# Entry
Amino acid sequence: MSKVSNDVYRKQLEILRVLSEYSQPVGSSIIRKELAKRGFFLSERTIRYHLKLLEEKGLVEGHEKEGRTITKMGLEELSRALAYERVGSILTKYLSLAYKVTYSPETGSGDVVANVLLMDKKFEKKSLEVIHRLYEGRFLPLPYIKVLDEEEEYRGIVAPKNKIVILTICNLTIDGVLIHSGIPLLLKYGGLVQFLGGKPIRFVDLISYEHTTIPPLEIFIYKHATSILRVLETGSGMVPANMREIPASARDKSLGAISALQKQGWSGILSIGLPNEAVLGVPVSMDRFGISMIGGVVSAAAIVEAGINVDTFAPHCLVDIKDMEKIS
# Structure
């Protein structure tokens, strides 16, 4: 499997992982449901294609109409792959996605990093109303979304039956623009920022990106620790945010790149510190400055606060911004 692309490898590895959890043959429809729970939204046709490739490599075995099972070789391949999954893998994934960004603030075009929100179709209207409230409060990185109706497919993402997928823009896109401007950065923390009187005051919880295999901001969503809707109503509450550090020598160039993004409607910057100055109460390393932004998962967190069950995969993929619809 070493000769296939990273994206294909990840999908095939996850299929092997699903098969390893069953003692009996499994069909593509069950595999599809299990993959969706893990953030892989593939059509049954695509799954059958990958299963055929895996069978040709001897990693899975076919059982006619009953489905497939994983072979001894498949278990060995899965074991080797899992051995490479280590602390820091989340950070690597994030930076890899940011590096693939092609969005240009000069033209307002290109690929952006997107989050995937999966929910029952009956909650579509209410969820979009929540996202619109975030737009009015300038809590979105950029007010663009894409909605996939049930069974609709886009770039390998398929909305399951009776479900919809909402794609929102992640602030990792901003990191991507900075990286391609020649600005080195370090993603440091994901956490909760306390708001009082409509203004960010301080981080109250932090998780280091370097020391976790779980997306930090998703943890706060599942713990129901955010209170974004209350911030919109009263000005006080907890908002998911993250923080990165940049060398002090690149501060002027960073400010210029962020200014260009803001002219295109980007927002969500909470604080930009001075060199060697703490940001929202969090110290920065010597000869660096910090930037804190509202997390791209803000839409998912607010939707959960509204009482809607949503599966969140953030960040997840790249989307061409021209394929998205601007919120108005």
Remarks:
- Residues 41 and 157 are 5 Å apart (CA to CA).
